[in-house]
């Protein structure tokens, strides 16, 4: 091919170095972009077949690679919804067209609809606790939804679980069967009484009267009534039967519940859900009466703040101090992260060379750990980029010299004909 081939090779070299300079320019421009992954130009030779006595110069071709698997440094922030990943994995986000993508850019803030979005407008995806404790879909995005936190929304949590712990004095007198609280007679008697506050489905407080009455040697009746049904200025008779009753039996050798005794009592909160009260720590010892109790649930409260744990669980912190799990954020990964397709906005999508996406939770299956209150910075090193820029500039100049030399020789050949 001679001088024309030499000139084409010079042009090929200049084009390759131009591509390298373009990646350097992109890297420098995005050196402060959260989650940005450094681009680099990889060169490979183009060889043309040569015959004896002549050499056909080829050229160089450029492949652009991204250092997606190389993590950038973490920078801690004051925002509780900023997220970073320490180790392998990507957050799953959703574009405006509903298509899922992967990203390491975790600076999320609520938009007008309460959805957590990053700087490029991609919505963070997670599994909701609305239908129970979420389980991951290992090989796809099914079940994921946009994480939405409406802080103006009032949320009430009905009571479902509680505990009641009391010491029932072993020296207490036995109450006759006809006068037990479960009979709900005007002459009813009891040994000890306490009350518990529970919450109905609308967050209303329901006061429950709990009667503990000795019925025999080492046996006690526990009866629960709705305070709203109590007779005016008294207790018995209540307008309706007991919400639940049970009989506890104690082991006389240690004062704890024996193996045949019930360990809880279940009832339906008026206007609410089924409440199960744990009684397993009740005792019958020769000392005074003492009692403690707790019931979950809450009155209607707005979300005061959002808290994200290292396992990816998003909790709503309410004004009353209670909190509730809303979502759990999964992490995604592929076999070859550096082969992912790069999309505008620091997001990536699967390609034929990257392998299929696999999802899991923070810290499981080789995935990294979610770090709340931090963001991952760009993995670009400015010093390296400036060095590459100088090297690419020198190489570009050298390639232009070979093109210039070929051009001058070609001009010399043309002038020989004159």
UniProtKB/TrEMBL annotation:
Domain Flagellar basal body rod protein N-terminal: 7-37
Keywords assigned: Bacterial flagellum, Cell projection, Cilium, Flagellum
Major place of residence: other
PROSITE patterns assigned: FLAGELLA_BB_ROD
ATP-binding keyword on record: no
Residue span(s) of domain Flagellar hook protein FlgE D2: 181-292
Residue ranges constituting the Flagellar basal-body/hook protein C-terminal domain according to the UniProt record: 372-416
Pfam families: Flg_bb_rod, Flg_bbr_C, FlgE_D2, LlgE_F_G_D1
Location(s), subcellular: Bacterial flagellum basal body
The keyword Manganese is assigned to this record: no
Residue stretches making up the Flagellar hook protein FlgE/F/G-like D1 domain: 84-151
Protein family (similarity comment): Belongs to the flagella basal body rod proteins family.
PANTHER family xref list: FLAGELLAR HOOK PROTEIN FLGE, FLAGELLAR PROTEIN
Function: A flexible structure which links the flagellar filament to the drive apparatus in the basal body.
Listed name of the protein: Flagellar hook protein FlgE
């Amino acid at each position: 091919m001679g001088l024309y081939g030499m000139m084409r090779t010079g042009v090929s070299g200049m084009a390759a170095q131009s591509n390298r300079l373009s990646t350097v320019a992109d890297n420098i421009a995005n050196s402060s972009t959260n989650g940005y992954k450094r681009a680099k130009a990889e060169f490979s030779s183009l060889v043309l077949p040569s015959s004896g006595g002549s050499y056909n110069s080829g050229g160089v071709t450029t492949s652009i690679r991204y250092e997606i698997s190389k993590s950038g440094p973490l920078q801690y922030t004051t925002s509780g919804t900023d997220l970073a990943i320490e180790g392998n994995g990507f957050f799953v986000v959703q574009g405006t067209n509903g298509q899922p993508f992967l990203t390491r850019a975790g600076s999320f803030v609520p938009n007008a609809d309460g959805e957590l979005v990053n700087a490029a407008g991609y919505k963070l995806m997670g599994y909701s606790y609305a239908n129970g404790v979420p389980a991951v879909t290992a090989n796809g995005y099914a079940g994921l939804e946009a994480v939405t936190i409406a802080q103006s929304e009032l949320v009430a949590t009905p009571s479902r679980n509680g505990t009641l712990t009391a010491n029932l004095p072993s020296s207490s007198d036995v109450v006759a069967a006809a006068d037990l609280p479960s009979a709900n007679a005007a002459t009813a008697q009891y040994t000890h009484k306490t009350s518990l506050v529970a919450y109905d489905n609308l967050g209303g407080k329901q006061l429950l009267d709990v009667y503990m009455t000795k019925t025999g040697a080492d046996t006690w009746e526990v009866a629960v009534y709705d305070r709203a049904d109590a007779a005016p200025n008294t207790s018995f008779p209540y307008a309706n039967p007991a919400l639940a009753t049970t009989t506890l039996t104690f082991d006389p050798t240690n004062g704890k519940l024996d193996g045949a005794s019930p360990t809880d009592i279940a009832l339906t909160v008026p206007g609410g859900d089924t409440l199960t009260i744990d009684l397993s720590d009740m005792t019958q010892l020769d000392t005074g009466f003492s009692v403690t109790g707790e019931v979950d649930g809450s009155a209607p409260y707005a979300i005061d703040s959002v808290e994200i744990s290292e396992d990816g669980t998003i909790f709503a912190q309410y004004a009353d101090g209670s909190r509730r799990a809303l979502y759990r954020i999964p992490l995604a990964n592929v076999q070859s992260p550096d082969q992912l397709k790069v999309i505008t906005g620091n997001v990536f999508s699967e390609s034929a060379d990257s392998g299929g996406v696999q999802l899991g939770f923070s810290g499981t299956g080789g995935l990294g750990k979610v770090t709340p209150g931090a963001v991952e910075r760009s993995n670009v090193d400015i010093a390296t980029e400036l060095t590459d820029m100088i090297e690419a500039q020198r190489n570009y100049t050298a390639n232009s010299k070979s093109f210039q030399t070929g051009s001058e020789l070609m001009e010399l050949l043309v002038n020989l004909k004159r």
